[in-house]
Amino acid sequence: MSASSTVRLQREPFDAAAEATKLTRGRTDVGAVVTFTGICRGDEAGAPIASLTLEHYPDMAQTEIERHVAEALTRWPLMGATVIHRYGRMAPGEDIVLVVTASSHRTAAFAAAEFLMDYLKTRAPFWKQVEKAGEKTWVEAKATDDAAAGRWSADKRQAAE
After folding, report:
1. DSSP letters spanning the chain
2. pTM for this one?
3. 70: number of CA atoms within 13 Å, CB side?
4. Which residues contact 137 (CB under 8 A, 6 or more apart)?
5. pLDDT, tens digit (0-9, with 9 covering 90-100), for 25-67
6. Closest Cα partner for 34 from 129, 122, 99, 123?
7. pLDDT tens digit sequence for 145-161
8. Span 127-142, mean pLDDT?
9. What is the pLDDT, as a whole number, of residue 159?
């Protein structure tokens, strides 16, 4: 069987277990499934937040995320990958993003999931706005996230080989 992929951008909540089941249904070649769910925290920089709002350009975000999922499918021997990213207003405790990867072995599934999350955190075309105490501010990129994503560059891969 070939690898399958799903990328969805949606306002509605998702069911992580149902999505993992969809990805592996009818497959006997899958030996590992890794799921990551990003959840809206209740604080930002030590201050309580009321909400997180994510904005995006739908076609651009869909195309870019699909491109990175396709890259993950070529880098690792995956049987499938699913990325679901919510947009709109979310309250603390609500799910924001889901990444599911399936492979014969755990190493590929974990690596691909990390690669996709590092990309989503640093390069996916979403803009985040935090609301706290009646004040709204845009979230800036973090150097630590960029450093984590940097390990997937072609130069770093070649140096490690």
Report:
1. ---EEEEEEESS---HHHHHHHHHTT-SS--EEEEEEEE--SEETTEE-SEEEEEE-HHHHHHHHHHHHHHHHHHS-EEEEEEEEE-EEE-TT-EEEEEEEEESSHHHHHHHHHHHHHHHHHTSSEEEEEEETTEEEEPPP-HHHHHHHHTTSHHHHHHH-
2. 0.89
3. 6
4. 129, 130
5. 999 999 999 999 999 999 987 889 999 999 999 899 999 999 9
6. 99
7. 566 668 877 644 433 43
8. 84
9. 37
Sheet holding 95-103, edge to edge: 4-10, 78-86, 95-103, 32-39
Kindly list the distances between the CA atom of residue 16 and the CA atoms of 10, 41, 83, 152, in Å, as whole numbers in the listed order.
Answer: 14, 18, 10, 26
